[in-house]
Specification:
By secondary structure, the protein is α/β, with parallel strands linked by helices. Helices cover 46% and strands 20% of the residues. The protein has 15 helices and eleven strands. It is globular, with a radius of gyration of 26 Å.
Length: 331
């Protein structure tokens, strides 16, 4: 009898752990430009509620889009609109959710910036990336070879850059010396060189380890990106393929809420929605919206979560078995 009780007790503990803390997973992949925002929102969202658990990995806008069509991910992060080829290939069952504004900044190594190179025209940038212009002295810098850093095929940031600079997303920029997988890697490559140039998301522009150039005389500021006057402005999106599942939709609403948009701003992004779009008062709006993303029953009384209810039932069964066992022993 003791062995049976011990076995049942172990089973109860394992079941309680597995069931009480089970969460539906929401998986997201895609643009590395959007990742810092989505990752920060996922961390806050996971702390706020326990019904869903959001995981985020990068991989590029294109692979993210493919991933949701293959049902490997619930949502795709994107730093661009869908390409006509993607709609032709996968159909028009996509749903798009704007989450922030972003810009692609042109960055150079500190020695180049300190030499006086502070602005480039789009034409100069095109010539540098096409290989027509190879020396910094051609744009007012030192007599030094230009080390050109680009992004990998499938990157939304690359697609936007190519479209705005070359007028074609599929162009092969022949002047590129090194290809990186994400904006953070691009920043490291620029900072580690004394003659580098590259492009990266606005949220990566902080710090004195790189120099940020203006483009066509326009500085990459929040205001200029949001109003579109900065030439390399873009928006960030979450995409679903078909209607989002409840957990994915809950997370999207969180990102678009005052709380999520505040997280965007804290991480160097430009909110997609103003306070008037999502709430009259940032503080009150945040509280009100946060409540929407938490299962009210779970938030009010954790013991009423489905896992705890199941564990409670199992506890009752175990108690009944123990009582029955002792009664049989006495008889």
């Amino acid at each position: 009898m003791k062995e049976m009780v011990a076995a049942l007790l172990i089973a109860l503990i394992l079941t309680f752990t597995a069931v009480a803390f089970a969460q539906e997973k929401v998986t997201i992949s895609g643009s590395s430009a959007a990742m810092p925002l989505v990752e920060a929102c996922a961390e806050a969202y996971n702390d706020l509620q326990k019904d869903y658990f959001v995981t985020v990995v990068d991989g590029g806008t294109g692979p993210g889009i493919v991933g949701i069509t293959e049902r490997r991910y619930d949502l795709a992060m994107a730093s661009r609109e869908l390409e006509p080829e993607e709609i032709e290939l996968f159909g028009d069952d996509f749903q798009r959710f704007p989450i922030a504004h972003d810009g692609i900044v042109i960055a150079v190594s500190p020695p180049i910036y300190e030499s006086g190179v502070r602005d480039l025209s789009t034409d100069q940038l095109r010539k540098i990336y096409s290989g027509e212009m190879e020396n910094w002295k051609d744009v007012g810098g030192p007599d030094s070879q230009i080390y050109v850093i680009g992004r990998e095929l499938g990157s939304g940031t690359r697609d936007i850059f190519n479209e705005m600079v070359f007028g074609n997303t599929t162009v092969e920029a022949m002047g590129i010396d090194t290809v990186t997988m994400q904006s953070a890697e691009t920043k490291t490559a620029i900072a580690g060189s004394d003659k580098g140039i590259g492009y990266l998301g606005f949220s990566y522009a902080e710090g004195d380890d790189i120099g940020i150039l203006s483009l066509d005389g326009v500085t990459a500021t929040e205001h200029n990106i949001k109003d579109g006057s900065y030439p390399l402005s873009n928006s960030l999106f979450l995409y679903s393929y078909g209607s989002p599942r409840p957990g994915a939709m809950s997370f999207i609403e969180f990102v678009e809420s005052p709380t999520g948009q505040a997280i965007a701003q804290e991480n160097g992004f430009i909110p997609a929605f103003s306070k008037s779009d999502v709430g009259d008062d940032a503080g009150a709006g945040s509280t009100e919206n946060e409540i929407r993303f938490v299962n009210e029953t779970s938030a009010a009384d954790p013991m009423k979560q489905s896992g705890f209810e199941a564990a409670g039932v199992l506890s009752s069964i175990l108690a009944a078995l123990i009582i029955a066992g002792y009664r049989n022993k006495r008889l």
